[in-house]
Amino acid sequence: MSKDRIVEVKNLVKHFGNLVALKNITFSVEKGEIFGLIGPNGAGKTTTLRILATLLLPTAGYVRVLNYDVVKESSKIRPLISYLAEDAGTYRNLTGYEYLSIVARIYFRSKADAEEAVEEAVKISGLGERISDKMKIYSKGMKRRIQIARVLMTKPKLAILDEPTVGLDVFHAQYIRRIIKEYASEENSIILSSHNMLEIERLCSRLALIHSGQIVTQGEPQTLKDEYGAANLEEVFLEVVRLWGK
Amino acid sequence: MGKMRALIEKEVKDLLRDPRIYIGLIIPIIMLPLMGFAISVAMKSAENTATNALTIAFIDYDETDVSGNFISLLSDMGLKTVKLTNESLSRAIEEAKAYGSQTLMIIPKGFGETLLNFGRANVEVYSIIENIGISSAGMQSAVDKVLAASSEILSSMLISKIAPGVNPNVIRNPLNMTRYTVIRNRVMKISPQAIFGQLMMGYGIMVPLILFVLSITVTQIAATATAVENEEKTLETLLTFPVSRYEILMAKLLGSSVIAVLGGAMFTGGFLLYFQGFFGFLGLELGFEELPKVLPSPPPETYVLLTISLILSIFFITSLGVIIGALSSDVRMSSSLLGIIIIPVLVPSLMIMYGDLKTLPLALQVLVYALPTSYPMIMSKEMIVSNIPSEVIYGIPYSAALTLMVVYLTSKLLTPEKLLTLQYKLKLKRVRGKQKPML
Predict the structure, then answer these.
(1) Per residue in B96-122, pLDDT tens?
(2) What are the strands of the beta sheet with A19-30, ordered from one edge?
(3) I need a surface site. Which of A54, A147, B24, B305 has the fewest CB within 10 A?
(4) CA A127 to chain centre
(5) Do A89 and B5 count as a contact with CB atoms less than 8 A apart?
(6) Do A106 and B13 touch (CB under 8 A)?
(7) Contacts of A78 in chain B (CB under 8 A)
(8) Between vectors from CA B107 to CA B105 and to CA B113, what angle results, nearest 5°?
(9) What is the pLDDT of residue A100?
């Protein structure tokens, strides 16, 4: 695995009993890039991200994150990554500040580092004084902002974001996209999934299109558009699925 | 340690602020004293009613000085007496009721003569029950007390007549018995009835009941805390944090235990206040103050063993709670599962509470000894007689091993692969193949 390769997935297979969720998928994520996984519901995006986040084990295949094996070295991966689940909830009875503070104390040994991370997260969330409210009164957009802040405050080498803007209005979605774009740098990489083709086109440097547990095409957004003669990624997606069906 | 502290803080804060938890904790400390107070007030009011308006209606067929003196004696003792004229019983009862009396006494002819000849004189007493309630019971009890006291006075008068200068109490009760009770070769100056009475009230009911409630509370809290993580979709995120499964589990166990102990303390407080209200009226002791005067304090090692068995028991059932919660998609489901699992686990404790373990059939004994929750119950009963049963000595290492095994299995279950796969399978079962769950 190259030094600049943050994620390397080769021939990944995942079974749930008799159901084959992933069939020999292969892709990689390089340092500093935002990589997108797009596909319909049930295509296998969340399963892929859960394996990268060390939540699920692969049935077969080779998966390395930050040069560590997800099966044998998951405890070395966890401090370096941060995962945002599609439907990640919040602790209703904790305030936003308390939640961030608890997570910071889990990730950082030094009290000063933890406090600095919390202050940074408070800024990222953009919640102002509402950070001291209990999270049960937060709107969906506020909950998502606190989760994004939680993910990024730990300064992960790889942020794994499953549908980061799902269900949000245009203002909140725009705010979160801006934060994601700003976070990706030479040191930090992001892998995200989305149904929103426009979002993927704007954010990602490369993407993989996943359908029925298989990667049907991957590459840079412009390259894919050129390859399929499409005006946007949505048209690419429809064309690929049509060709795949044949 | 910093990570653990943060996780425990999360558990305790989130639980303590959850109305589903704190309402359950507060209710006993408010409701139980209120119940005790209500019962006490009702009983006191009944007693006042009884003593203030205690009337006895009577028909005197004897019409002698002796029967007249007997009626005067009842009047002197605070009873309002009403002489009836109707000779038929049914009419006399109606007349007594009209006077507000709930008791009709008939003194037959020959009453005085029988007494003067030192025979047992007959008296018929009819209790007229108009309603079934505490006041009615209190009134009848008060009449009985007065009649019994008057009988005793008559007896003293007769004894004094036969043997002047002799204490009537000596004639009535010539044996002066000093009762001793021997427990585990220890001789104590107390009747066995007093010990059993106090043990029943104190250690036989109170302590096991508190342990029982504590067990249910701790399991419920752990199950709810974990089920809430599933319901609110926070468990998945928690499992990606750089903490071991043991740390997550231990934080849940400790956090739930802290809340449960707090709940147990509040329940105990509420229960003691309830008993104080209830027994205060009856003039009874709870059994905790008198007993230590005659029974020696249990040796320190019994407390140590009780504490160890209690900690093991709490960890065992809290782990069960975590398993129940982890397998439940929401709190409602965990509450349903809790009843199914916890009742069979706690039934053996009831056997210890109300029965003699050694007289149970062998199969039931095996069941009782198989569960760590049984040992605090056994210990709390046995420590009163300063005894450390051999089954507890062997049972504690066994409980420790079993508890460790359950904790280990629970931590294994908390691995995301197993949990998510198991939850996926449960989901799949629920939709019965009609619709595949989202991946």
Answers:
(1) 888 888 889 999 999 989 988 888 889
(2) A19-30, A5-16, A60-65, A68-69
(3) B24
(4) 22
(5) no
(6) no
(7) 240-242
(8) 155
(9) 97
Under 8 Å between Cβ of B77 and B146: yes
- The domain that contains A106 carries what CATH number? 3.40.50.300
Structure tokens at A33: 């890039």
Query: If you measure CA to CA, which chain A residue comes closest to B244?
Result: A75
Report CA torsion sign: A106, A112, A118, A120.
Answer: negative
**Which ipTM was obtained for this model?**
0.91
Burial A219-228 (b: 16+ CB within 10 A, else e): eebeebbeeb
Angle between helices A233-245 and A221-228 (to 10 degrees): 50
**Is B10 within 8 Å of A57 when comparing Cβ atoms?**
no
Amino acid, single-letter form, for residue B362:
L
Contact B233 A103 (CB under 8 A): no
Write out the DSSP string of B158-218: HHHHHSTTS-HHHHH--------EEETTEEESS-HHHHHHHHHHIIIIIHHHHHHHHHHHH
Least confident window among A30-34, A36-40, A154-158, B302-306: B302-306
| pLDDT tens column, A49-77 | 999 999 999 999 999 999 999 999 999 99
Contact, A190 vs A207, CB < 8 A?
A: no
Question: Of B290, B300, B303, nearest to B199 (Cα)?
Answer: B290
Structural domain including A137 reads: 5-244
Count the Cβ atoms, other than its own, within 10 Å of residue B299: 13
Residue B288: which pLDDT band, with cuts at 50, 70 and 90?
A: very low
| Contact B433/A at CB under 8 A | no
User: Average pLDDT of B170-182?
Assistant: 84
- Name the residue among A47, A89, A109 with its Cβ closest to that of B439: A47
Number of domains in chain A: 1
